Amino acid sequence: MITISDLTLSFDSDRGRTIVLKDFHLDIADGEFVSIVGASGVGKSTLLRVVAGLVKPTSGTVERDNPEQPGRRPYAMVFQDARLLPWRRVVKNVEFGLEGLGLTAEEKRRRATGALALVGLAEKADRWPHQLSGGQRQRVAIARALAVDPDLLMMDEPFGALDAITRQSLQDELVDLWQRTGKTILFVTHDIEEAVYLADRVVLLAGSPAGVRSADRITTPRPRRRDDEAARDAAAQIRDRLHEYVEQGEGI
Amino acid sequence: MKKANKARPLLLAITGVVLFLALWEALPRFGLVKPMLLPPPSDIPATFWREVQSGAWLSAVQESLKHYVTGLVLGSFLGVALGVLTGMSRTLEDMTNWVVRLLRPIPGLAWVPFAIIWFGVSPAAANFIIIIGVFWINYFAALGAVQAVDRDLIELANAFGHRSPVARLFKVVLPASIQPIMSGLRTGLGQAWMAVVAAELFGVSGLGQRMMQASSLLATDIVVVYMITMAVLYGIVDTSFVLVRDRLLAWKA
């Protein structure tokens, strides 16, 4: 279980204090798939960065009830751009997060190869990043995150830069990976259909400062279909709500 | 058609060299320039052979290479190390800002008086001048390279647990800035030769000193021998450097 409590983030600039997030609260159960949706610029990515410890919150805490374990990292990130290191071969990119954990070279290689196999890229291990397609690069980024065996896998619009066909197949692969690994996932997107298709719960982030406006449980049984009617209704409701906030001058 | 196109640049290059040598040969041969002022290229091999047999050539080359390598290695290392350090630390950058502005415009040669006062006419003086000549190029190349490292890659390192300055340096900063740093090093390779000659013109033994001696005797053919020697040495060093660099940057494809 991961508990995000009373998270507030503000920063000071010439124009005074800007409060990005205020009193954000979210409990995520182990193995749960949570999506966060919201208008662009509302603070979704910032929220992920705070949870990941990349940005220090002004107040509030992020707590896990899992103890620290050797050879693992508590959090892992997948960014919108795959963000591979161009000077490392694919397998060395996947090993990136494993370095500094006190693992032997064989252990690192074994786990990196395993993670690559999970995303179906085992045979690309010795390629350079520039030799891969956009979708393959993003799968390597997912493998890199899975390799550290995190309690929480955070994804920041990971499929936003991909073409529609690649995006759909990666969405299906992600659901499959999630079901096989049992990872807890926090998935940020601005695409409400994507959120509803993937997640157990869809959290709407809106307002300025941003806070949780609604959290819908998506009960559609898996495997899901993209044209499922209940899901479409849920997406429509969330979108209506989002539009309300935007029209109130809150969301953008 | 294709074949002709491939051979063409090579053919033109050879033609260029031949024309250049012919013109050079013609000027003194037809009395347009005094041979003493411009020795014809056909005289050079014999002069070269005489220099080799007397032992002057080998000892001059050895001396100069010693200065060159010592000065180049120390100057490059100091330049890159301080440039990288300054690029990674805002405090250090702000602190050195004005010192750098003060020292930077002083040309390497302006340090010759101090070099001689501090070290005398000695190899150490030559090394010192070469170090200064190479230092700034590498310092600014490394500083600029480190400051231009993609912030997103730093964030990536943070996200995957590489948060200490040392981890950041070796996992991301150095590999990401290796290419511009290499360009700085390569510029330094040429700059260091200039500094070698400059330093030796003041009497430290080596190619420069031998050239100075020869020119005071109006033995211009000997001067040309050492000019060519320097060009060839530089060519060898630069070519080897490019080979090593291309291996290091294999991921660039």
Describe the structure in your own words.
The complex is a heterodimer of chains A (252) and B (253). By secondary structure, chain A is an alpha/beta fold. Chain A folds into two domains: 1-66 and 153-252, Rossmann fold; 87-150. Chain A contains seven helices and nine strands, in the order E-E-E-H-E-E-H-H-H-E-H-E-H-E-E-H. Chain A has helices spanning 44-51, 90-95, 105-118, 134-147, 164-181, 192-198, 229-247, and strands at 2-13, 16-28, 33-37, 59-64, 75-78, 152-156, 184-189, 201-206, 211-217. Chain A has a six-stranded mixed beta sheet with strand order 5-6-7-3-8-9, sandwiched between helices. In chain A, strands 2-1-4 form a three-stranded antiparallel beta sheet, covered by helices on one side. In chain A, helix 6 packs across helix 7. Chain A is globular. The mean pLDDT of chain A is 91. In chain B, helix 3 packs across helix 9 (207-216) and helix 7 (151-159) crosses helix 8. The two termini of chain B are 29 Å apart. Chain B has two domains: 1-38; 41-252, Orthogonal Bundle (MetI-like fold), CATH 1.10.3720. Chain B is 81% helix and 0% strand. With 253 residues, chain B is an all-alpha fold. The mean pLDDT of chain B is 91. The interface between A and B is medium-sized, with 24 and 18 residues.
Q: Average the pLDDT over all residues of chain B and give the rounded result.
A: 91
Question: Which word captures the global form of chain B?
Answer: globular
> What's the CATH superfamily of the largest domain in chain B, by name?
MetI-like
Series of H and E elements of chain A: EEEHEEHHHEHEHEEH
Instruction: Tell me the CATH architecture of the largest domain in chain A.
Output: 3-Layer(aba) Sandwich
CATH fold call of the largest domain in chain B: MetI-like fold
What is the percent of helical residues of chain B? over 70%
CATH superfamily of the largest domain in chain A: P-loop containing nucleotide triphosphate hydrolases
Largest sheet of chain A: 6 strands, mixed
Distance between the termini of chain A: 31 Å
Give the uncertain stretches of chain A in residue-range form: none
